[in-house]
Amino acid sequence: MSKLNVVVLYDRWDEPADESAATDKAPITRTLDKKEVEDEVAETLGKLGHEATLHVLDGSVKSLHAIARLECDLMFNLAESFGGNDTADYCIAGYLELLDKRFTGSGSHGLLFGQDKAAAKKILEFHGVHTPVFARSFRGRLDFSHDLEFPVIVKPAREDGSIGIEFSSVVTSIRELMERIDWLHANFDSPVLIEEFVEGREMYVGVLGNEHPEALPVIELDLSKLPEGTPRIAGAEVKWGKGTRAYRDTKSAIAEGLPDETAALLQQTAIAVYQALELRDYARIDMRLRPDGRVAVIEANPNPWLASKAEFAMAARKAGRNYTQLIEAILDLALARYA
Question: pLDDT per residue over 101-128, tens digit each?
Fold first, then answer.
């Protein structure tokens, strides 16, 4: 491949302190590692012989306008938010599409389905893919509902990265349910998803490809060491609560002890979700494996975290691709779509 000019697009935004807007208990939010993923991707593109430059979306209109003036062969899209809005990733992709920019990862439709969990569940139900039964509510209005029984898990319908999902999200009574809904409405301008709580193992399957997508080896987030009485969920405490026991004692690794047919079922389900939601290039599908072997799809993650130590890269290594080869594969898949 000839040398390419690649712009690595990423987001940063420092929220101004506003004590008057604080609630009794603010949500746990995403934190970033010292070596950020955009640096790793840019360095890897350089190793592949390409010219990589970084462009940050800092929440300003100026940073958006600058994209229109950028000349490049491809944008490696790592942007997950804009101006503190974690639900804006599909808007960024839509903006790139309007500008006729070529970029990696899912387009605006796939990212929107990844954000709107209720809409995604309806699509998956149409395609015969099992997801936990649910209800959707916004400010007292019930828009869509299945019959539910406690316990249920209550979460924002339009957030990702486990933002808004904490151990207190699993509720067992009407009082706890109403308190959690009230907390979510106070902290997120989003409908609330009230979903059947599925006991089981937390499984992640990465998918790579377009016309013939490939399911990567199954990753398990081991929640077994959480304190007694704590719901076994991948909440914000597990993902972002650095320094806590929940963060320290939960690790992702290649799933062990899975019968071949179970691993195949998880991988087949992941591909079915990937195609039904119009995802492209790469994504991660999060599922629960029930004790009886049934699979329940929790959510789809288009453009998952691409750090070299994250679950997607871990699964790619197990499949025989090192980090450099993974970034090259994503680059090639995106370029092929525009050929």
Answer: 999 999 999 999 999 999 999 999 999 9
pLDDT band at 17, cuts 50/70/90? low
Q: Where are the domains of the chain?
A: 5-105, 123-128+199-338, 131-196
Is 0.70 surpassed by the pTM of this model? Answer: yes
The CATH classification number of 123-128+199-338 equals 3.30.470.20
SS3 string, the chain, reads CCCCEEEEEEECCCCCCCHHHCCCCCCCCCCCCCCCHHHHHHHHHHHCCCEEEEEEECCCHHHHHHHHHCCCCEEEECCCCECCECCCHHHHHHHHHHCCCCECCCCHHHHHHHHCHHHHHHHHHHCCCCCCCEEEEECCEEEEECCCCCCEEEEECCCCCCCCCCHHHEECCHHHHHHHHHHHHHHCCCCEEEEECCCCEEEEEEEEECCCCEECCCEEEECCCCCCCCCCCCCHHHHHCCCCHHHHCCEEEECCCCCHHHHHHHHHHHHHHHHHCCCCEEEEEEEEECCCCCEEEEEEEECCCCCCCCHHHHHHHHCCCCHHHHHHHHHHHHHHHHC
